[in-house]
Amino acid sequence: MEESTDRPTKKKVVAVVGGGLVGALNACFFAKRGFDVKVFETREDIRQAKIVKGRSINLALSHRGRQALNHVGMEDKIVSQGIPMHARMIHSLSGKQSPIPYGKKGQYILSVDRSNLNKELLTGKNINRILHFTATVLRSDGSEEQIKADLIVGCDGAFSAIRKQFLRRSRFNYSQTYIPHGYMELTIPPINGEFSMKPNYLHIWPRNTFMMIALPNTDKTFTCTLFMPFDEFEKITTGDEVIEFFQKYFPDTIPLIGVDALKRDYFHLPAQAMVSVKCSPYHIGDTCVLMGDAAHAVVPFYGQGMNAGFEDCIVFDEILDQFNDDFSVVLPEYTRVRVPDDHAIADLAMYNYVEMRAHVNSKWFLFRKHVDNFLHFLMPKTLVPLYTMVTFTRTRYHQALERWKWQDKVRNFWQMTSTRGGKTPPEHHIQLYKHDWLQNNRALSVSELSAGRIWN
Ligand code: EGU
Description:
With 456 residues, the protein is α/β, with parallel strands linked by helices.
């Protein structure tokens, strides 16, 4: 609600630092609320750039991200440019392919092109009148161009310059963890102008420590992402060794990528690092707030990095509504509400990394997902797979994490009773168990999960 008597003339200025995915989306959100938005970006304007380097090429857009796009009227456009993935396609070592649906019929995630999405967000009709691209860095000492803003929104990624200012302050918590794995992107070209594998799937080659996934692109290529420990990347030094490695772990992909392309592209770029960042609070006073990777970089093993960052924008927008754009109340409330959820998705992604690396081959992956889907089929209200809550709902991440902890106990209980020769317990047993557990509500701390070890 506009209190036109209090501030009738001047629009509040919001400086969004970072013109990446979250910065550009945030600009749309703030413009829609009637703020005077200025976007600062040190890289060249990607709307004119030919090659955009760094960061992964395609991303999995799911419910949370779509909801955020919907708030700024861009969901339909972006969805129409994405490729639906209704299921995973698990590739075994022998080349056998097995699909596992993501959800019920009609539930799917989308493969979207990062640079296309970024361009669309920067040219969205919501922000064309306020976009202020500049090659100067926003510096606290004002040594470059100076602007006065009522609010600074740091959306400048995992290595945020804005967050660096937070680090100098008392009582700011910060941790960052590099995982031992790196990733490398390779391309599967089309064959005779057509996709060379089934397009509407997220293709996965789970091989414990080594893992590859492939997402479809609109130009009928697939972008493969190979995940493996840096020391393994370094062991491979010649083209022949690359082929030998692929022959051993991903033989069915050699003809798809092509021997020559593989030998060449493997050495094109070094493997990229993955970092997980947690911090709190997300704000300073009533003037500065962090969102997206600047607040919480996550490892990519839940496909939620962009989705979580986009959901930050919705949450902030909802709190602005609730407190009439009063930044002195909105900023602390945003920290209070959002930190537990962003920390939870950072933990879940790290946990999935640890789990996949430890014992996820194709058989195990198929088995686990089928068990989850079957239990969900038996008790749709009680046992919801974690990835379903994360991917297809806006269940708060910290609640999804809590629920998953007791569901795991329920499953163990069920497995225990059934291996003792008992039948599947009737659902009220499960309900009782859940009730008891909720009564005790002594949640496992994250450090008790194996992901916790990575943090310490
Ligand atoms: C990793 C890198 C399959 C894009 C996690 C699933 C990912 C993506 C999974 C990347 C996996 C892993 C989920 C989605 C998605 C699965 C998910 C992972 C997209 C638990 C471009 N992950 N990713 N989980 O369920 O919830 O299919 O870089 F291999 S989408 Cl690691 Cl849903």
